[in-house]
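Methods — Computational structure assignment.
A single polypeptide chain was analysed. Its primary sequence is given first, followed by the predicted tertiary structure written as structure tokens.
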Amino acid sequence: MPESAKIQFTPAQSAAITARGGSLLVSAAAGSGKTRVLVERVVGLITDPIHPVEADSLLIMTFTNAAAAKLRADITTRLAEEVRAHPGDMRLRRQQLLLQRAAIGTVDAFCLHFVQQHFAALDVPPDFTTAEEAELARIEQETLSAVLESAYTDADFRAFADLYDRGRTDNTAGNAVLELYHFSRALPHPAEVLQQFAAMWQQDTPPQDTPWGQNLLAISLQRAQGARALLQAAARTAAKDEAADFAYTAVLQEDADRVTWLCQVLEKGDWDKSVAALGEFDTAWRRAGRIKGGKDGNPCAFAASELRARAKKQIESLRTDFLLCTGEEYAADRRRAAPLVAALVRVTQQFADACFAAKCEEKLLDYADFEHLTLDLLLTPDNQRTPLCRTVSSHYSAVLVDEYQDTNALQDAIYFALARSEGDNLFFVGDIKQSIYRFRQADPQVFVDKQQRWQAYPQPAPQPASLALDANFRSAPGVIAGINYLFEVFFSQGLGGVAYGDGQRLVVGSKTTDYRGFCEVDVIDGAGAEGDAAAIAARIREMMAEGFVVRDKTGQRPCRYDDFCILLRGRGDFAVYEAALRTAGIPVFADTAADLLDEPHIRPFAALLRVIDNPAQDIPLAAVLLSPMFPYTADDLVTLRGACPEGSLYGAVLYGGQPRFAPFLETLAEFRRLARTLPVDALLEELLARTGYLAAVGALPEGARCREDLQSFCAWAASAGRTGLPGVIRAMDAARQNGGLTQNTGGQTRPGCVSIMTVHRSKGLEFPVVFVANTSHQFNQSDAIRPVLTHSRLGVGVMLRAGSTAKRYKTLPYAALAQAIRTETLSEEMRVLYVALTRAQDALIITIPLKKAASSLKTPALCAHAEATGPEAMQGMSNWAGWLLTAVLLHPSSDALWAYTGLLPHYLPTRIPLTIKVLPAPEAAPVPEPAPAPAPDEALLDTLRQSFAWCSPRAPLQKIPAKVSVSAVAHAARPVALERPAFLQKTGMTGAERGTAIHAFMQSVPFDGTAPDLDAEVQRQIDARLLDAGLAGKLDLDRVRPFFESAVWRRIRHARAVLREEPFITALPAAQITPEAGECEAEVLVQGIADLVLVYDDHAEILDYKTDRSRDTAFYIKEYAAQLQLYRRAFAQRLAVPVTKLTIYSFTLGEEIDIPLQATQKNL
């Protein structure tokens, strides 16, 4: 290995490369060279002198397609080095060809290909395609609506839904079904898992014998022990001062003894005794003695008092969040909730089955489907290997998985099924401290379980083993020392997933340079995100000015702007930091792989779609009116609201008497008409063309990107809208609930620019100088307060109501799940912080903006003073700043911070260098005076005014259609009515459906004999395919029957000719079509279809069927007189006899209504 010989591998790296004989789990810390190790192991397997393997017998799984492509390229390059070193080795040359056939890719890609190869063994369409997110959202929403419709026939499910929405909506119940469905799909055999979740609620056992009770007792014990530690620390502090010792020590010792007794009860694991013991603390806290001058003036007394108060609060929280009921109360809750959970599980399974069937119907499958189908092909329901599995697994000499910390239980089951039955040819590499994809259903417990069960390397074959790569080759020693100091304080197995000790602590990998680097924490007093951003901008300018030295592959050099990266937890404050850097004259590039639906240039167009679907939405309507698509300002809306302050904004636009909004109403009516007639892709093209919005966004800063975003959104909407515009709206809502509509951007950095990106986007990258910014952002713990909770080990947790009108309360299982999910959420936040800090190569600067430093430092200072840095204490923090400040306060360089707290400083004995600064909030930059506007060129201005004032003499013709329908003319002046939104139109039978059914039936009824038997006639029309069976089901024969007993039927029998559904076309003056035509002499073609024309020897009659619900005769005359009078004018030119009678037959009234023959100006 001539080339690789230049690389000096550490002993742990060498072991990971050369280990054989059993499966291996490699825990690779940040910057430890895991990719290089993986490449060397693959090449080592191919070139092994004793048992070489064929390149195409390797199965290598990566997390992303980009990682797979890079890994394949790296292996190809490394194998080429071996070929150059051994030019006569023909086997090696053949391996270069076989490598191109090797399965190197994501688990999703593997499963897709596997299902395509073996679809014949599955009940799926052979020509399936991979569904887009929009298509999946649409199918899920449509399926959910249908499933819920039938689910409400289940009394238990109705009771479950009523727990949350009280019969008002089914949103919470529907979301619970969706969440449980998605959660279960990350587990092997989800149907069995769901049944296990339901069965957990059926077990009649005391709380301490359930996983829920055991979980809560264990956490309660930890918190009680934490409270005892606080009390003991308070006693030690009080003992340092005579007055404080006299007032507090005895009371604190008594408190500690009582908490010790509570810990002993909790350790025994008896639920009811633990609840009873906790109840004795109601009156257990004796008042402390008095301090002369007050405790606030005595630092030791103040610290003791504050620590005691925190301990009391921690004990009191056990009653509300942990030991919240007796065993008898739990049993009653369990019996009441068990059928509700069973109903939820039933409906979720029904939804899963119906959703899969719907996807197969449309020949669409998603990646979770591919994974489950792959597992079904490999394992039987009782986890036995299938014949296909034995054949496939025998082909793979090794299964290697990168980024194993981000796998889930389903994927893990697939890996083991593809390995040999002995499970001795697996190689997993990852880092539990970098598992940050829980929101994608990654389960770090999969990694942790093996790390705990597999013994340290080496182990006798074929026993599995684990190995740690802790040498960091990325970061400078000063950066590594700072990272280690911080995480040794607050990273733990209970909060992070693993103890930050040997094997996890970073070790300096490169010791050949004297470059130290540094780690710095800047606390910015009185600052929010804006002050934080300004401070970072100032620091970047300072480092650029001084020529801060960084390292690259060639040595050391002064820093450049693209050496800097600002990392943020989320994208919400990107604009703030970007603006601060631009104000400071610093080139910046923000990696905005953001939610398209939340982009300022997408929101108005998305709002337009919502308004077209349902105008009665104030916020979207206001967004549309104020957008570049329409010429309205905020002042216009204020004026409108002043004239019409009550009701909805749409009602004000309609009836507010503001002529300025008339063009908007015309445009909206036209857009709504287009939405009813055009497919969504064509509708979007029309909207972009008619509004000019694509050109408008192109004129924005970064216009090219904005245009691309809008086109991407339209492509997504066209895919989501296969069933029409309501499908797009549902897909937008679903995308919003699932974290937004994200589009991957190209590069994450730009040469010559400071980068701003989220921590998740930075994973796998490194930068010479990293700012971890805005660490005082609040954690998002919404997952732990959802109405229904799910957990892979604890199942389902629900809340209950004490009565029909009472508030919901937490059940014991719900409390257990809430605490487990909260712990897992905070553990992931800890790992995200680890990823952020380990991106730095030469300088790591952590900024902590504090709007009120004294109050923000109180809790961290108390924890630092008591050295309460375990998981039970750190879980009480609400942001990264709490953890960081606790560790920083324990460092000997933190005197400036302790000065804010009123407590005596307390430090850990450490010599690790850590720069700690307390900075004032930067002053706001003065706003420059706007430059005076130049004087206009009067001659040019006059020319422009004349040009813009010109009107085409043929302008009226632009508003005149060449052809219209009779109904469009007859109802042109009718006031626009508020239409029901699309989701309501889906419920029940609409008037249009009733009218269509009756018209279709009447069109084919024979008029040449006696009155027909209506039931027999319906069947005849269905058999003859004259009437659609679906329409027949909507036909109300009771409303049709009176027609055949009426005078109309008798006149039909005597007519010489009966014209049915008779089309016609005629011409009318344009002025009768649209008032804008003025005196224009143009004519417009008017077309229509008459339901019934009866021709006699000396006259003719025209009759129209109407199915409107109105029972007011005047309504029909007012609404339809103009329409029938137009019919008369048209048929007067076609018939040889005059039309002397116009009538409407109302199926609602069951009678005939005479219409006046003469058309008035109002009618026309």
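Note: The two ends are 94 Å apart (CA to CA).
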